[in-house]
Amino acid sequence: MEALIEKLKEQIIKQLNLEDITPADINEEDSLFGEGLGLDSIDALELIVLLEKEYGIRIENPKDGQKIFFSIKTMAEFIQEHQKK
Amino acid sequence: MTPQITAFCHIKKNQVFLNGKRIFSTGPEVDMREFVKAAFRNTGTKYPKFFKMDDYSKLGFLAAEVLMKEVGESTIEAKSTGIVFSNRHSTLTTDQLFQDSIQSDDAFFPSPSVFVYTLPNIMAGEIAIRHHFTGENAFFVSSAFDPDWHTFYINQLFESKKISACLSGWVEMDDQSLEAFVYFVEKRKNQQNESMQHTVEELNNLYKINDK
């Protein structure tokens, strides 16, 4: 799980062009949207693409997104549970 | 009374010029995209969204940032400040990037964040958001910077009282090179300086001033 969390941090920084942010700056339990990393709606779409592209996971119900993308930790837990690749 | 050019910024060949004076540069070996990011950091502005923009928007945004720091936001009426830009290739480099992401059936991953920048008006929108400009805006595509068209169109906007100021210019980028020539033009009651009027001749002069 620890390795997956670190990998996710790096992938998110790269995919979302979070310049000047390092993996160490991201707390795995902080919220990704709002006051946490401050991501926006386009970033949310990019995270959906990232899940599919890197982990072969497609989110069937968009309503689940809020729960899955709450934090790096919730994303990692979801990936671990559903990973096909 | 002819509107006057308050300030102008020219970015090309890894150099940033403000009012004809070079204020930032990197060596020619630096990739042009890295140059734009370095030049933006040099402005001292903290705006994380900048790094999420496509390369074309970054270029226009950088030029506007340099220019507006010189003009001074407090002196202008943002509500009636317009934006008029033009270029040759529209957002072709970004369009190609997006096309690459959907080219293969086996790797069909269209990027939402690339897609949203596949229109040149988006660059103008990013600038409008940053500086709260809500006046008229337009984007034109032409084969080269056309001072005749810019002066005609913008002076008409002033005449019809649609704007009190305008951020305007040429922001062009392809795979090999980039160029932004952006200027701020205003119509004020107590204008002192008559040296930079918004005429075809003056615009031609300013556009070529850093050619030497």
Descriptive notes:
The complex is a heterodimer of chains A (85) and B (212). Chain A is mainly α. Chain A has a single domain (2-82), classed as Non-ribosomal Peptide Synthetase Peptidyl Carrier Protein, Chain A (Orthogonal Bundle). Chain A contains four helices and no strands. In chain A, helix 1 crosses helix 4 (72-82). Chain A is globular. The model of chain A has no long low-confidence stretch (mean pLDDT 91). With 212 residues, chain B is an alpha/beta fold. Chain B has one domain: Thiolase/Chalcone synthase (Peroxisomal Thiolase, Chain A, domain 1). In chain B, 36% of the residues lie in helices and 23% in strands. Chain B is built from seven helices and seven strands; from the N terminus they run βββααβαααβαββα. In chain B, strands 3-2-1-7-6-4-5 form a seven-stranded mixed sheet, sandwiched between helices. Chain B is globular, with a radius of gyration of 17 Å. Chain B starts with a strand and ends with a helix. Classes of the chains: A mainly alpha (85), B alpha/beta (212). The interface between A and B is small, with 13 and 10 residues.
